[in-house]
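--- STAGE predict ---
source: upstream dedup step, 1 unique chain passed
mode: sequence only
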Amino acid sequence: MKRFVNGVLSFLIVIYVLAACNPLAKKNSQKEKVQVVLQRMPYLQSAIADSISVLWRTNVGSECMVKYQLIQGGDWLQQTGEVRSKNDSVQENIATINGLKRGQIYAYKVFTDGVQLASDKELQFRSALASTDSVFTFFAAGDIGESVEDGGTPDKLAKTIWERNSAYDLGLLLGDIIYPIGESAGYDIHLFPYFKEVFSRTTTWPIPGNHDWGSNIETNYAEQWKLPGNEHYYSFDQGNVHFIGLDSKNGGFYEYEEQKAWLEDDLKKAQQKYDWIVVFLHHNGKSCTYKDDYEAVVTLYPLFDEYNVDLVLNGHAHTYERLKPMNGKGEVANQQENYELYQNTEGFISITAGSGGKLRGVGSDPTAYTPDPSNCKYPDLVAFYNHTWAYLEIAVNGKSMSAKTISVQNGEILDAFEIRK
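--- STAGE serialize ---
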Protein backbone atom coordinates (compact mmCIF):
# COMPACT_ATOMS: atom_id res chain seq x y z
CA MET A 1 0.00 0.00 0.00
CA LYS A 2 2.82 2.39 0.87
CA ARG A 3 4.47 1.66 -2.48
CA PHE A 4 1.17 2.45 -4.26
CA VAL A 5 0.77 5.78 -2.45
CA ASN A 6 4.37 6.77 -3.23
CA GLY A 7 3.78 5.94 -6.87
CA VAL A 8 0.66 8.09 -7.05
CA LEU A 9 2.50 10.99 -5.40
CA SER A 10 5.38 10.70 -7.87
CA PHE A 11 2.93 10.71 -10.77
CA LEU A 12 1.18 13.82 -9.49
CA ILE A 13 4.51 15.61 -9.03
CA VAL A 14 5.49 14.86 -12.63
CA ILE A 15 2.12 16.15 -13.89
CA TYR A 16 2.55 19.37 -11.85
CA VAL A 17 6.07 19.98 -13.17
CA LEU A 18 4.99 19.44 -16.78
CA ALA A 19 2.06 21.79 -16.34
CA ALA A 20 4.26 24.46 -14.81
CA CYS A 21 6.67 24.24 -17.74
CA ASN A 22 3.93 24.28 -20.35
CA PRO A 23 3.87 27.72 -22.11
CA LEU A 24 0.15 27.37 -22.76
CA ALA A 25 -0.43 26.93 -19.06
CA LYS A 26 1.68 30.00 -18.35
CA LYS A 27 -0.30 32.03 -20.82
CA ASN A 28 -3.54 30.93 -19.18
CA SER A 29 -2.27 31.60 -15.70
CA GLN A 30 -1.07 35.14 -16.32
CA LYS A 31 -1.52 37.76 -19.00
CA GLU A 32 1.44 37.93 -21.32
CA LYS A 33 3.26 41.27 -20.97
CA VAL A 34 3.28 43.38 -24.16
CA GLN A 35 6.45 45.28 -24.97
CA VAL A 36 6.16 49.07 -24.93
CA VAL A 37 6.68 50.50 -28.41
CA LEU A 38 7.02 54.21 -29.21
CA GLN A 39 4.30 55.22 -31.69
CA ARG A 40 4.93 58.98 -31.80
CA MET A 41 8.17 60.74 -30.92
CA PRO A 42 8.14 63.16 -27.96
CA TYR A 43 6.93 66.66 -28.84
CA LEU A 44 6.79 69.88 -26.85
CA GLN A 45 3.71 71.90 -25.98
CA SER A 46 2.69 74.96 -23.98
CA ALA A 47 6.03 76.34 -22.83
CA ILE A 48 4.49 78.98 -20.56
CA ALA A 49 6.24 80.79 -17.71
CA ASP A 50 8.21 78.12 -15.80
CA SER A 51 6.44 75.08 -17.26
CA ILE A 52 6.42 72.91 -20.38
CA SER A 53 4.48 69.80 -21.41
CA VAL A 54 6.09 66.78 -23.06
CA LEU A 55 3.82 64.40 -25.00
CA TRP A 56 4.50 61.09 -26.73
CA ARG A 57 2.46 58.06 -27.78
CA THR A 58 2.89 54.35 -27.22
CA ASN A 59 1.04 51.14 -28.01
CA VAL A 60 0.50 50.29 -24.33
CA GLY A 61 1.31 51.77 -20.96
CA SER A 62 -0.07 52.72 -17.57
CA GLU A 63 2.67 54.94 -16.11
CA CYS A 64 4.97 57.55 -17.62
CA MET A 65 7.74 59.86 -16.52
CA VAL A 66 10.14 62.50 -17.84
CA LYS A 67 13.65 62.95 -16.49
CA TYR A 68 15.27 66.31 -17.18
CA GLN A 69 18.53 68.09 -16.45
CA LEU A 70 20.05 71.48 -17.23
CA ILE A 71 22.27 70.97 -20.25
CA GLN A 72 25.33 72.36 -18.46
CA GLY A 73 24.99 69.70 -15.79
CA GLY A 74 23.40 69.07 -12.43
CA ASP A 75 21.07 66.46 -11.00
CA TRP A 76 18.54 64.63 -13.12
CA LEU A 77 15.08 65.55 -11.88
CA GLN A 78 11.92 63.66 -12.71
CA GLN A 79 8.28 64.42 -13.33
CA THR A 80 5.59 61.77 -13.39
CA GLY A 81 2.79 62.14 -15.90
CA GLU A 82 -0.38 60.38 -16.93
CA VAL A 83 -1.25 57.87 -19.63
CA ARG A 84 -4.63 57.93 -21.32
CA SER A 85 -6.21 56.10 -24.21
CA LYS A 86 -6.90 58.08 -27.38
CA ASN A 87 -9.59 57.54 -29.97
CA ASP A 88 -7.14 55.92 -32.41
CA SER A 89 -6.28 53.01 -30.09
CA VAL A 90 -2.97 54.37 -28.82
CA GLN A 91 -1.84 55.62 -25.45
CA GLU A 92 -1.03 59.29 -24.96
CA ASN A 93 1.73 59.95 -22.45
CA ILE A 94 1.87 63.49 -21.10
CA ALA A 95 4.02 65.04 -18.39
CA THR A 96 3.95 68.73 -17.45
CA ILE A 97 7.13 70.01 -15.82
CA ASN A 98 6.95 73.03 -13.50
CA GLY A 99 9.58 75.09 -11.71
CA LEU A 100 11.94 75.43 -14.69
CA LYS A 101 14.55 78.16 -14.87
CA ARG A 102 13.46 80.61 -17.55
CA GLY A 103 15.20 80.61 -20.90
CA GLN A 104 17.42 77.60 -20.14
CA ILE A 105 18.20 74.55 -22.26
CA TYR A 106 17.40 71.18 -20.70
CA ALA A 107 18.14 67.63 -21.76
CA TYR A 108 15.27 65.20 -21.21
CA LYS A 109 14.38 61.52 -21.38
CA VAL A 110 10.96 59.86 -21.57
CA PHE A 111 9.83 56.62 -19.93
CA THR A 112 6.67 54.51 -20.19
CA ASP A 113 6.21 51.68 -17.67
CA GLY A 114 9.85 52.14 -16.70
CA VAL A 115 11.14 51.68 -20.27
CA GLN A 116 13.22 54.52 -21.71
CA LEU A 117 12.03 55.41 -25.21
CA ALA A 118 13.82 57.29 -28.01
CA SER A 119 17.04 56.54 -26.13
CA ASP A 120 19.07 57.00 -29.32
CA LYS A 121 18.03 60.68 -29.57
CA GLU A 122 19.55 63.70 -27.81
CA LEU A 123 16.30 65.25 -26.63
CA GLN A 124 16.38 68.90 -25.56
CA PHE A 125 14.03 71.77 -24.88
CA ARG A 126 14.39 75.43 -24.02
CA SER A 127 12.11 76.79 -21.34
CA ALA A 128 10.08 79.93 -21.99
CA LEU A 129 11.99 83.19 -21.88
CA ALA A 130 11.40 85.73 -19.13
CA SER A 131 10.01 89.13 -20.07
CA THR A 132 13.47 90.62 -19.56
CA ASP A 133 14.90 88.38 -22.32
CA SER A 134 14.58 89.75 -25.80
CA VAL A 135 16.66 87.62 -28.18
CA PHE A 136 15.10 84.57 -29.82
CA THR A 137 14.06 83.14 -33.19
CA PHE A 138 10.87 81.45 -34.32
CA PHE A 139 9.40 80.03 -37.50
CA ALA A 140 5.92 80.23 -39.01
CA ALA A 141 4.50 77.95 -41.70
CA GLY A 142 1.03 77.43 -43.11
CA ASP A 143 -0.77 74.64 -44.95
CA ILE A 144 1.88 72.04 -44.22
CA GLY A 145 -0.04 68.76 -44.08
CA GLU A 146 -0.56 67.87 -47.75
CA SER A 147 0.59 64.31 -48.40
CA VAL A 148 3.77 63.77 -50.38
CA GLU A 149 1.81 61.47 -52.72
CA ASP A 150 -0.49 64.40 -53.56
CA GLY A 151 2.36 66.79 -54.29
CA GLY A 152 2.86 68.14 -50.77
CA THR A 153 6.24 68.94 -49.24
CA PRO A 154 5.96 68.34 -45.47
CA ASP A 155 9.12 66.20 -45.72
CA LYS A 156 11.16 68.96 -47.37
CA LEU A 157 9.78 71.64 -45.05
CA ALA A 158 10.75 69.69 -41.94
CA LYS A 159 14.19 68.92 -43.36
CA THR A 160 14.86 72.56 -44.28
CA ILE A 161 13.72 73.84 -40.90
CA TRP A 162 15.87 71.28 -39.08
CA GLU A 163 18.97 71.86 -41.19
CA ARG A 164 18.69 75.63 -41.06
CA ASN A 165 18.16 75.92 -37.32
CA SER A 166 17.78 72.89 -35.07
CA ALA A 167 17.02 75.16 -32.12
CA TYR A 168 14.22 77.54 -33.05
CA ASP A 169 12.70 78.77 -29.82
CA LEU A 170 9.15 78.17 -31.03
CA GLY A 171 7.14 77.47 -34.16
CA LEU A 172 3.74 78.73 -35.34
CA LEU A 173 1.58 76.42 -37.46
CA LEU A 174 -0.84 78.59 -39.46
CA GLY A 175 -3.65 76.10 -40.01
CA ASP A 176 -4.56 73.40 -42.53
CA ILE A 177 -2.21 71.11 -40.71
CA ILE A 178 -3.68 67.89 -42.11
CA TYR A 179 -5.30 67.40 -45.51
CA PRO A 180 -7.84 66.62 -46.73
CA ILE A 181 -10.16 66.79 -43.71
CA GLY A 182 -8.01 67.07 -40.60
CA GLU A 183 -8.57 63.48 -39.45
CA SER A 184 -6.55 62.12 -36.52
CA ALA A 185 -5.10 59.26 -38.58
CA GLY A 186 -3.38 61.74 -40.87
CA TYR A 187 -1.15 63.17 -38.15
CA ASP A 188 1.03 60.07 -37.89
CA ILE A 189 1.25 59.76 -41.67
CA HIS A 190 1.67 63.30 -42.99
CA LEU A 191 3.05 65.32 -40.05
CA PHE A 192 4.76 63.77 -37.05
CA PRO A 193 7.04 61.30 -38.90
CA TYR A 194 8.60 64.19 -40.84
CA PHE A 195 8.74 66.67 -37.95
CA LYS A 196 9.94 64.29 -35.23
CA GLU A 197 13.30 66.07 -34.91
CA VAL A 198 11.83 69.58 -35.02
CA PHE A 199 8.92 68.97 -32.67
CA SER A 200 11.07 67.15 -30.09
CA ARG A 201 13.18 70.30 -29.63
CA THR A 202 10.93 73.22 -30.55
CA THR A 203 7.63 74.04 -28.87
CA THR A 204 4.97 74.37 -31.57
CA TRP A 205 1.80 76.45 -31.39
CA PRO A 206 -0.88 75.44 -33.92
CA ILE A 207 -4.16 77.05 -34.87
CA PRO A 208 -6.77 75.27 -37.02
CA GLY A 209 -7.65 76.01 -40.64
CA ASN A 210 -10.71 75.15 -42.69
CA HIS A 211 -9.36 71.71 -43.62
CA ASP A 212 -8.77 70.94 -39.93
CA TRP A 213 -12.44 71.72 -39.43
CA GLY A 214 -13.29 69.05 -42.03
CA SER A 215 -13.57 66.47 -39.23
CA ASN A 216 -14.96 66.86 -35.72
CA ILE A 217 -12.38 69.28 -34.42
CA GLU A 218 -12.72 68.26 -30.78
CA THR A 219 -12.05 64.58 -31.43
CA ASN A 220 -9.41 65.05 -34.12
CA TYR A 221 -7.36 68.30 -34.15
CA ALA A 222 -7.80 69.04 -30.43
CA GLU A 223 -6.76 65.50 -29.48
CA GLN A 224 -3.27 66.07 -30.91
CA TRP A 225 -2.25 69.16 -28.92
CA LYS A 226 -2.12 70.62 -25.41
CA LEU A 227 -2.84 74.33 -25.69
CA PRO A 228 -3.99 77.08 -23.31
CA GLY A 229 -7.57 78.19 -22.84
CA ASN A 230 -10.19 76.51 -25.00
CA GLU A 231 -7.50 75.41 -27.52
CA HIS A 232 -9.29 77.23 -30.36
CA TYR A 233 -7.87 80.68 -29.58
CA TYR A 234 -5.31 81.61 -26.96
CA SER A 235 -2.33 83.82 -26.21
CA PHE A 236 1.13 83.32 -24.72
CA ASP A 237 4.31 85.25 -24.13
CA GLN A 238 7.89 84.66 -25.17
CA GLY A 239 10.36 87.23 -23.91
CA ASN A 240 9.24 90.68 -25.00
CA VAL A 241 6.70 89.37 -27.54
CA HIS A 242 3.00 88.67 -26.99
CA PHE A 243 1.55 86.06 -29.36
CA ILE A 244 -2.16 85.67 -30.10
CA GLY A 245 -3.55 82.66 -31.98
CA LEU A 246 -7.06 82.89 -33.48
CA ASP A 247 -9.43 80.26 -34.89
CA SER A 248 -10.87 81.61 -38.15
CA LYS A 249 -12.63 78.28 -38.87
CA ASN A 250 -14.02 78.54 -42.44
CA GLY A 251 -13.31 82.26 -42.69
CA GLY A 252 -16.14 83.40 -40.44
CA PHE A 253 -14.44 82.47 -37.13
CA TYR A 254 -15.28 80.06 -34.36
CA GLU A 255 -17.63 81.81 -31.91
CA TYR A 256 -16.96 85.14 -33.67
CA GLU A 257 -18.50 87.52 -31.13
CA GLU A 258 -16.98 85.76 -28.12
CA GLN A 259 -13.61 85.46 -29.80
CA LYS A 260 -13.57 89.11 -30.87
CA ALA A 261 -14.45 90.26 -27.34
CA TRP A 262 -11.73 88.00 -25.92
CA LEU A 263 -9.23 89.37 -28.47
CA GLU A 264 -9.94 92.98 -27.55
CA ASP A 265 -9.63 92.24 -23.85
CA ASP A 266 -6.37 90.36 -24.41
CA LEU A 267 -4.95 93.21 -26.52
CA LYS A 268 -5.91 95.78 -23.90
CA LYS A 269 -4.08 93.84 -21.21
CA ALA A 270 -0.99 93.57 -23.43
CA GLN A 271 -0.55 97.33 -23.89
CA GLN A 272 2.72 98.78 -22.59
CA LYS A 273 3.84 95.33 -21.40
CA TYR A 274 5.59 94.05 -24.53
CA ASP A 275 7.72 95.46 -27.31
CA TRP A 276 5.93 93.37 -29.95
CA ILE A 277 2.52 91.83 -30.60
CA VAL A 278 2.11 89.06 -33.19
CA VAL A 279 -1.27 87.70 -34.27
CA PHE A 280 -1.49 84.42 -36.19
CA LEU A 281 -4.52 82.78 -37.81
CA HIS A 282 -5.38 80.80 -40.92
CA HIS A 283 -7.43 83.08 -43.17
CA ASN A 284 -6.30 86.30 -44.81
CA GLY A 285 -8.02 89.64 -44.63
CA LYS A 286 -7.22 91.84 -47.60
CA SER A 287 -5.19 90.01 -50.22
CA CYS A 288 -3.91 90.23 -53.77
CA THR A 289 -3.54 86.45 -54.05
CA TYR A 290 -6.11 84.22 -55.72
CA LYS A 291 -8.13 84.13 -52.49
CA ASP A 292 -11.01 86.47 -51.79
CA ASP A 293 -10.89 88.89 -48.88
CA TYR A 294 -12.34 87.46 -45.69
CA GLU A 295 -14.47 90.21 -44.21
CA ALA A 296 -14.51 88.69 -40.73
CA VAL A 297 -10.72 89.14 -40.64
CA VAL A 298 -10.97 92.67 -42.04
CA THR A 299 -13.38 93.58 -39.20
CA LEU A 300 -10.49 92.97 -36.79
CA TYR A 301 -8.25 95.53 -38.49
CA PRO A 302 -9.41 98.40 -36.25
CA LEU A 303 -8.40 96.36 -33.19
CA PHE A 304 -5.03 95.49 -34.71
CA ASP A 305 -4.38 99.17 -35.41
CA GLU A 306 -5.72 100.58 -32.14
CA TYR A 307 -3.86 98.11 -29.96
CA ASN A 308 -0.50 98.23 -31.74
CA VAL A 309 -0.30 94.83 -33.38
CA ASP A 310 2.94 94.57 -35.36
CA LEU A 311 2.54 91.41 -37.45
CA VAL A 312 -0.47 89.42 -38.65
CA LEU A 313 0.53 86.02 -40.05
CA ASN A 314 -1.80 83.72 -42.00
CA GLY A 315 -1.86 80.78 -44.38
CA HIS A 316 -4.79 79.64 -46.58
CA ALA A 317 -3.52 80.94 -49.95
CA HIS A 318 -0.85 78.50 -51.14
CA THR A 319 1.67 81.17 -52.00
CA TYR A 320 3.72 83.91 -50.31
CA GLU A 321 2.69 87.57 -50.08
CA ARG A 322 3.81 90.43 -47.82
CA LEU A 323 1.62 93.52 -47.69
CA LYS A 324 2.62 97.07 -46.86
CA PRO A 325 1.72 98.28 -43.35
CA MET A 326 -2.01 98.92 -43.05
CA ASN A 327 -4.13 101.02 -40.73
CA GLY A 328 -7.47 100.08 -39.21
CA LYS A 329 -9.27 100.86 -42.47
CA GLY A 330 -7.08 98.47 -44.43
CA GLU A 331 -5.32 101.36 -46.18
CA VAL A 332 -1.56 101.64 -46.63
CA ALA A 333 -0.46 103.37 -43.43
CA ASN A 334 2.60 105.06 -44.83
CA GLN A 335 4.31 105.29 -48.21
CA GLN A 336 8.04 104.83 -48.39
CA GLU A 337 10.59 103.97 -51.04
CA ASN A 338 12.09 101.01 -49.23
CA TYR A 339 9.79 98.35 -47.80
CA GLU A 340 12.68 96.27 -46.49
CA LEU A 341 13.34 98.51 -43.48
CA TYR A 342 10.63 99.98 -41.27
CA GLN A 343 11.61 102.58 -38.67
CA ASN A 344 8.91 103.39 -36.12
CA THR A 345 6.32 102.62 -38.76
CA GLU A 346 2.59 102.97 -38.23
CA GLY A 347 0.11 100.17 -38.79
CA PHE A 348 0.53 96.40 -38.93
CA ILE A 349 2.17 94.19 -41.56
CA SER A 350 0.08 91.28 -42.87
CA ILE A 351 1.84 88.28 -44.41
CA THR A 352 0.41 85.24 -46.18
CA ALA A 353 2.71 82.25 -45.72
CA GLY A 354 0.50 79.41 -46.92
CA SER A 355 2.99 77.50 -49.04
CA GLY A 356 4.90 75.60 -46.36
CA GLY A 357 3.75 72.26 -47.72
CA LYS A 358 1.25 73.03 -50.48
CA LEU A 359 1.58 75.21 -53.59
CA ARG A 360 -1.11 76.52 -55.91
CA GLY A 361 -0.79 74.81 -59.29
CA VAL A 362 0.72 71.60 -57.91
CA GLY A 363 -0.76 68.28 -56.82
CA SER A 364 -4.27 68.43 -55.41
CA ASP A 365 -4.40 72.21 -56.04
CA PRO A 366 -3.69 72.05 -59.80
CA THR A 367 -5.12 75.40 -60.94
CA ALA A 368 -2.31 77.38 -62.56
CA TYR A 369 -1.45 80.60 -60.75
CA THR A 370 0.82 83.54 -61.57
CA PRO A 371 0.77 86.42 -59.08
CA ASP A 372 -0.04 89.82 -60.59
CA PRO A 373 -0.35 92.43 -57.82
CA SER A 374 -0.36 95.31 -60.30
CA ASN A 375 -3.80 94.18 -61.48
CA CYS A 376 -5.11 93.64 -57.95
CA LYS A 377 -8.08 95.69 -56.77
CA TYR A 378 -5.57 97.11 -54.28
CA PRO A 379 -2.80 98.01 -56.76
CA ASP A 380 -0.53 99.65 -54.20
CA LEU A 381 -0.86 97.14 -51.36
CA VAL A 382 1.78 94.46 -51.98
CA ALA A 383 5.36 95.00 -50.81
CA PHE A 384 6.71 91.61 -51.96
CA TYR A 385 5.49 88.29 -53.37
CA ASN A 386 7.00 85.00 -54.50
CA HIS A 387 5.04 82.01 -55.68
CA THR A 388 7.01 79.10 -54.29
CA TRP A 389 7.17 76.76 -51.29
CA ALA A 390 8.30 78.88 -48.35
CA TYR A 391 8.18 79.49 -44.61
CA LEU A 392 9.00 82.46 -42.38
CA GLU A 393 11.92 82.80 -39.98
CA ILE A 394 11.66 85.73 -37.58
CA ALA A 395 14.43 86.86 -35.23
CA VAL A 396 13.72 89.15 -32.30
CA ASN A 397 16.52 91.23 -30.82
CA GLY A 398 15.18 93.78 -28.38
CA LYS A 399 13.36 96.45 -30.36
CA SER A 400 14.42 95.00 -33.68
CA MET A 401 12.51 92.27 -35.50
CA SER A 402 14.08 90.76 -38.63
CA ALA A 403 12.14 88.44 -40.91
CA LYS A 404 13.36 86.16 -43.69
CA THR A 405 11.32 84.06 -46.07
CA ILE A 406 13.07 80.73 -46.63
CA SER A 407 12.67 78.47 -49.64
CA VAL A 408 11.49 75.01 -48.63
CA GLN A 409 13.23 73.57 -51.67
CA ASN A 410 16.80 74.77 -51.07
CA GLY A 411 16.95 77.06 -48.02
CA GLU A 412 17.47 80.17 -50.16
CA ILE A 413 16.39 83.52 -48.68
CA LEU A 414 13.55 84.82 -50.85
CA ASP A 415 12.47 87.93 -48.94
CA ALA A 416 13.82 89.88 -45.99
CA PHE A 417 12.72 92.91 -44.01
CA GLU A 418 13.35 94.50 -40.62
CA ILE A 419 11.21 96.53 -38.25
CA ARG A 420 12.90 98.85 -35.74
CA LYS A 421 11.34 100.70 -32.84
